[in-house]
Backbone:
């Protein structure tokens, strides 16, 4: 339904080119929830913004329902009705001087939808704020964190979209409230057939709600596939390390260093300077240092961009 | 004797619209060399508790009860004695390393400051001490000349830990030391904290909203809700209080079929401290509340293996 093909996004950064997204193939099917997992700086937010048409790709295309995204005013506006953004930190994304009604009605007004009050009431009750009329005249500071996030979701739902792109939708919420918001996303998928791309650093969240997982490292997807396969039997060393630092895991692999800078992407496999298998002196480590890996294609099954995995499969 | 003993500690903020009870009668103890984790959601009073320990709260907060550190009551200390205790006997690692460091002062000068203020080292000795402190937290000595903005979030948090270690305190209070850090960097910082407290024999009081962080680092856990401790027990065991159970269920275990496509949370919101519910404060959100819970409040009771819980159901089972 929503597809990115060979997508690359570059920014100028102090005279150098930062390749924030550096060759990504990703698709979100109808009624599917995909989790895009990665550390800060890996390009996951840039990828989400590009999918929304907020950022223009340097190369590659974003297509929706089979046709490439047009960046002309009218077409882009129509696209944005279909694909809506849910931001993290509802305190920052809601205007503190706007009532809940005004915040949710903004989208329908821009798009000139009829029956504004009915649309707003329906969106609020779908987001779990019932009865909606009770919330119309409230201001964000009068709501709890969970309620504010529901208002942000209602704002997205008011336009009756087909796809939600949620950037860390529960990162700023308390643990007990987090579960309720995630349950809401699942319910929206079941009731309205909504698709969702959830951008997160939280693997537990992916396990909770996602059908598929894509793990991103330094601008590229390094492993993707069905949630159960990826999270229970990860192939890529980076995914293995991420999972190993969760409390339930027995043996932890704590990677040294921090994600490198997208203006200086390492040669060969981009993960090799931090890779625990290369560090342990694997015989094919030379290949990891010099040979580039192909960009992973869009497939339903699980796949990993790693020389070791390729070698294991061909053997 | 415990290193730190809190006895019926209460903190009330006075604001224009009345009094806000943030911490309500907390009693906890921490042995030398032990790591205690305090978990709670926003508004549970956990950060107020941390700040109260070294009397760092603003003037509009009224503190009562006793905070015994090494046999001395912090609340009764004279100003001069309190200044000597801060950093030298107990230090704090604050949350948000972004704001904890002075942006226009070099790292080395900031780490050296407690050493110079407490006259532990001369300026020359302080320099070599700073280098060894930075080495202990895994930073190269030349980083002493850097400014905070030149460091990543994880590195800044390491600097905060180096500062806390500077005067070799017996107790470190860490308030959300890994919040806002990436998963992998968080794991690095937690491993560092664990190694340091083990090698120096320091006691740790760690405060977090993230149960998984605490379960990993601490020996014992205390769960706070609406200003009270509702459960204490060993970190490995299973929770007895329904709130603790709900909190634990909200952190899914990857690979556990029960939580797959089934996120769990708690309905409702934490109570407004100015309008606390009657009886057990948790009863409006409690999935297993009895009729009596709206009128009867329960103190912490023994609930199995070195565990206490403040719940009527636990009381009935143990009788």
Residues:
């Amino acid at each position: 339904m929503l597809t990115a093909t060979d997508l690359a996004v570059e920014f100028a950064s102090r005279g150098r080119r930062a390749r924030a997204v550096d060759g990504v193939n990703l698709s979100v099917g109808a009624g599917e929830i995909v989790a895009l997992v990665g550390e800060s700086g890996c390009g996951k937010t840039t990828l989400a913004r590009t999918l929304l048409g907020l950022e223009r790709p340097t190369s590659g295309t974003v297509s929706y329902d089979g046709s490439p995204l047009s960046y002309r005013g009218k077409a882009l506006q129509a696209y944005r009705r279909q694909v809506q953004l849910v931001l993290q930190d509802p305190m920052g994304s809601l205007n503190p001087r706007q009532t809940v009604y005004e915040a949710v009605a903004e989208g329908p007004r821009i798009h000139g939808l009829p029956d504004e009050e009915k649309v707003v009431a329906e969106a609020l009750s779908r987001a779990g704020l019932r009865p909606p009329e009770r919330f119309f005249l409230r201001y964000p500071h009068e709501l709890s964190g969970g309620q504010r996030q529901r208002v942000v979701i209602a704002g997205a739902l008011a336009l009756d979209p087909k796809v939600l792109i949620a950037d860390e939708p529960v990162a700023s919420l308390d643990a007990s409230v987090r579960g309720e918001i995630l349950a809401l996303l699942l319910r929206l998928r079941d009731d309205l057939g909504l698709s969702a791309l959830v951008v997160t650093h939280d693997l537990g969240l992916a396990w909770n709600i996602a059908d598929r997982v894509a793990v991103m490292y330094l601008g590229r997807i390094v492993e993707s596939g069905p949630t159960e396969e990826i999270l229970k039997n990860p192939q890529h060393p980076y995914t293995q390390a991420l999972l190993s630092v969760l409390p339930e895991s027995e043996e932890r692999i704590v990677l040294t260093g921090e994600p490198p800078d997208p203006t200086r992407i390492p040669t060969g496999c981009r993960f090799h300077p931090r890779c625990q298998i290369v560090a342990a002196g694997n015989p094919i480590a030379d290949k990891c240092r010099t040979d580039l890996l192909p960009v992973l294609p869009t497939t339903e099954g699980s796949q990993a961009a790693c020389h070791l995995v390729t070698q294991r499969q061909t053997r | 004797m415990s290193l730190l003993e809190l006895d019926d500690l209460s903190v009330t903020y006075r604001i224009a619209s009345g009094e806000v009870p943030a911490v309500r009668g907390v009693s906890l103890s921490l042995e030398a060399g032990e790591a205690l984790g305090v978990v709670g959601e926003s508004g549970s009073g956990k950060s107020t508790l941390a700040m109260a320990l070294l009397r760092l709260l603003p003037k509009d907060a009224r503190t009562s009860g006793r905070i015994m550190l090494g046999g001395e009551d912090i609340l009764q200390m004279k100003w001069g004695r309190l200044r000597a205790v801060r950093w030298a006997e107990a230090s704090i690692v604050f949350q948000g390393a972004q704001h904890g460091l002075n942006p226009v002062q070099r790292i080395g000068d900031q780490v050296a400051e407690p050493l110079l203020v407490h006259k532990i080292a001369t300026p020359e000795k302080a320099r070599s001490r700073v280098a060894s402190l930075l080495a202990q937290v895994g930073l190269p000595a030349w980083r002493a000349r850097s400014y905070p903005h030149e460091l990543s979030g994880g590195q800044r948090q390491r600097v905060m830990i180096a500062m806390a270690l500077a005067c070799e305190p017996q107790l470190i209070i860490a308030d959300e030391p890994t919040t806002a850090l990436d998963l992998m960097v968080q794991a690095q910082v937690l491993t560092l904290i664990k190694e340091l407290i083990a090698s120096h024999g320091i006691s740790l009081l760690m405060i977090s909203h993230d149960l998984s962080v605490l379960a990993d680092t601490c020996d014992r856990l205390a769960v706070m809700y609406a200003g009270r401790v509702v459960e204490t027990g060993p970190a490995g065991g299973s929770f007895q209080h329904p709130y603790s159970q709900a909190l634990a269920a909200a952190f899914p275990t990857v690979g556990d079929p029960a939580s797959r496509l089934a996120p769990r949370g708690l309905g409702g919101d934490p109570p407004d401290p100015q309008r606390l519910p009657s009886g057990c404060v948790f009863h409006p959100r409690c999935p297993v509340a009895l009729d009596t819970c709206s009128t009867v409040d329960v103190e912490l009771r023994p609930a199995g293996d070195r565990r206490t819980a403040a719940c009527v159901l636990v009381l009935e089972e143990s009788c």
Q: What stands out?
A: Residues 175-192 of chain A form the longest helix (18 residues). Chain A has one domain: 2-236. Residues 76 and 262 of chain A are 29 Å apart (CA to CA). The longest strand of chain A covers residues 16-28.
